[in-house]
Amino acid sequence: MGFDIFLENGRSIILAYDHGIEHGPTDFNEKSVDPAFVMEIAEKGKFNGIALQKGLAEKYYNGKVPLILKLNGKTNIVKGDPVSRQNCSVEYAVSLGAKAVGYTIYPGSIHENIMFQEFGRIQEEARKYGLAVIAWVYPRGEAVKDDTSKEMVAYAARIGLELGADAVKIKYTGDPNTFRWAVKSAGKAKVLMSGGPKAPTEEIFLQQVKGVIDAGGIGLAVGRNVWQHEEPLKMAKALRALVIEGKSLDEAVHILKG
Ligand code: FBP
User: Which of 54, 169, 216, 223 is the most exposed place for a label (fewest CB within 10 A)?
Assistant: First the structure.
């Protein structure tokens, strides 16, 4: 099985909705606070996957879009070097219908070794079930001065490859030239862009996505820039055009504005 189930034309658009733990409901409005609303965006927007924590998967997942079960998570209430520990087993993820497991690693944190070790166990177990493994790799902590620098993002990508991830979800460096180095460093691990807070304009966001594709990334795994959008399905259509259908930036913008 592996990661192929998340691919379409060799590319992928994945909807992330694990923010309730990471940031709290502050990311949500009256609509997006309802998991059913986001589940519908995933389906109608033809996303190639949706990333959820187990509680949402248990109560809302309907099998319409391939599931990535996020196996760890932390709040932003605790300060200092981050650590995010496993809260769900691979076996339980399988029972919920997951086709991949996701896990966040914070390289640079004084606790990185805990996450490396835990991810290592999860990765081996996932292999037994034929599940894909996606690593959210976010350099973070006191020692990390610039988490989107060319070197730091490439380092994150490489860590994902070396620890056995099929795909790495990493932050964008800001331009395709520097991001290309991250893609190269990721080797055979596929590269997905992580979105970040809602971009100042939709054009800027689409430009970032185009940069990722131009640099050799296979797509994205994003949340806020989709379900915080006034018309999430339009944004989904534009992303699909850009990433899956290989349309130009202008065409994607046109779809969004049209
Ligand atoms: P966004 O596209 O909304 O940034 O989502 C990507 C994501 O990795 C989520 O999966 C996760 O909940 C969140 O970002 C983590 O955010 P932070 O970078 O603040 O830890």
Answer: 216
Each residue of 118-136: pLDDT tens digit? 999 999 999 999 999 999 9
CA distances from 37 to 23, 70, 160, 226 (A): 19, 19, 31, 12
Q: Whose CA is nearest to atom 11 of ligand 1?
A: 19
User: Does the pTM of the predicted model rise above 0.90?
Assistant: yes
pLDDT tens-place string over residues 107-117: 999 999 999 99
Instruction: Give residue 186's region: left, alpha or beta (phi > 0; psi -120 to 50).
Output: alpha
Name the DSSP class of 240: I
User: What distance in Å separates the CA atoms of residue 88 and residue 73, rounded to the nearest whole number?
Assistant: 10
Q: Radius of gyration of the chain from Cα atoms?
A: 17
138 is catalytic: yes
3-state helix, strand, coil in the chain (%, to 5): 45, 15, 40
Q: Is the Cβ atom of 159 under 6 angstroms away from ligand 1? A: no
* CA 102/CA 24 separation, integer angstroms: 19
- Report all structural domains of the chain as residue ranges with CATH numbers, in order of start: 2-229 (3.20.20.70)
Is 31 tagged catalytic? no
